[in-house]
Amino acid sequence: xxxAEFADLIDCNWPYHDISLSRELIESAVRISxxxxxxxxxxxxxxxxxxxxxxxxxxxxxxxxxxxxxxxVASLTAECAISLVERKRLPVPEILTKMGYVSGYPGLLxxxxxxxxxxxxxxxxxxxxLNEIRAVWERLP
Length: 141
Known about the structure:
The chain is mainly alpha-helical and 141 residues long. It is built from eight helices and no strands. The chain starts with a helix and ends with a helix.
């Protein structure tokens, strides 16, 4: 399965209440690509409006995700995902610093998205940084 196929499979269609299948999807994502792994995490912390899931289930799945993902930005991204699950916003300066770190790993758009949505970017600083990083990545060979 490709990253795009995986994204289509899980988009607003995560089996939140089936822990076994959720774990299988996380394991599959890890095998596909680093960005696919972060796509899985994104689905765990960005629930569609129609999904009613207890935060405890989501936090347990984020913990499982973190145990499966071996990437330098996994921990800092999981912190942001947890803040989204808990409906807490992180300070923009903290997110800008984290975005700077993630920028060193081209192609991790899903990780950047999680960071971006974990802050209340009323001044557009995180938005500008996100666009800047994406533009740099798009110019890479």
